[in-house]
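Model it.
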Amino acid sequence: MERDRRYYDDYDRPRDRDRDRVYDWDRDRDRERDRNRDRDRDRNRSRENERRRTQPPRGTKKKKKKRSALSNSMIYILMVCGVSAILAVLCWTMANDMLALNKEQTEAVITIKDEKDFGNVADQLKDNDIINYKFLFRLFATFSGKTDDIVAGQYRLDTSMDYSAILNNLSSRSVSRMTTEVTIPEGYSMAQIFSLLEKKGVSTVEKLEDMAATHDYAFSFLQDIPLGEPTRLEGYLFPDTYTFYLGEDPKYVINKMLVNFDAKVTDAIREQITNKGKTIGEIINVASMIEKETDGTDRATIASVIQNRLNNPSGGTQGYLQIDATIQYVLPEGEIVSEKDYQTVESPYNTYLNKGLPPGPISNPGLASIMAAINPDKTNYFYYALGEDKVHHFFATYAEHQAFLNS
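Modeled.
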């Protein structure tokens, strides 16, 4: 029995070991599973920690959005303030320009040749630093309605003038409009007068000639003279000292001289002309030759020679005036009359080839020559010549005249 029991004990013991061995395997499996679960949990926890490190928490993200909106608002406010500041500075700068505030002192001469070219006016003002903003000046001028008041001329302007003052000083009422004094000598021809006026900056020869030829000036002494040629006004541009605006309208320039003629040749003088059986045109024609020939002391004597030649077509010079100044009138400027010209210059102004008066005056005479033409001396002279003493010597006969020339 004991043997058997030992046998069974021995038999049972391996089985117990097997059972123990099975049990150990389950336990190891459970442990392995636990370890895997723990490892997975640790891995997931690490991933979550990593995600938390790389991405801010939800609460933090909401706060960031709030800070971003606030930042955008601040940026917008700053932008608005910045733009407003820029606009304010720009408006202030333009206001300073318009009102002539805080501007450096500058003076300039502005020349207007064509009052209709307002763009050129604005360009000159800008180029000469009188204004800073051409578009603003033109806008102001348009809305103020002062562009039509601008007239041609030269104006002295400065930066103390605001836009309104500038426009006022570019008008005919301007105190800034520049003037020049021009003295027109007695005996100047129309061409010489116009050239002098151009040299003085009053107007141009072209504009003056055009106005002289085409404008119908309302004076009685011009009514019988047709339009078309500028020389129609020869003799009536009264020599005197005038004050003209620089760049003045040529119509007003010529009109000023004609007005002076109209005032100097008074009604009493015109009555004398009528009583002599003459016209103003005839007297001015004779006076223009006297003015060119006189030495300043012998006007009435030269007038007597011209009258004697005109009134005695069968004696003396046979009705020919034979005055060199009439030929000189049609020669190129600077060319001196020669004896050859007496016969070769084909012109109605050649008084060696044509009897009587020339077609019109050859100069613009002064009042003294006009009065000499009305009231010449009573002489029997038909000839005169300039001596070495620079005065004229007068003769009744051709023989006396030739004897003087040959002496």
